[in-house]
Amino acid sequence: MNKNPISETERQHLRAEHRARVARCTEDLQVRYAAQKIVDLARQQAEEEYFNE
Hints:
Layout (H helix, E strand, L loop, with lengths): L7 H45 L1
């Protein structure tokens, strides 16, 4: 058994920190995904222009 269980206040604080970390990671992933989509689109357009000449 755990001899020193964490208090409900500490548990709530840890959960809030975890939610904040998850939100930041999710936002970072969304930004990276959007940036990659832009790069892919630019590459596709460059290839189309090159092969259409």
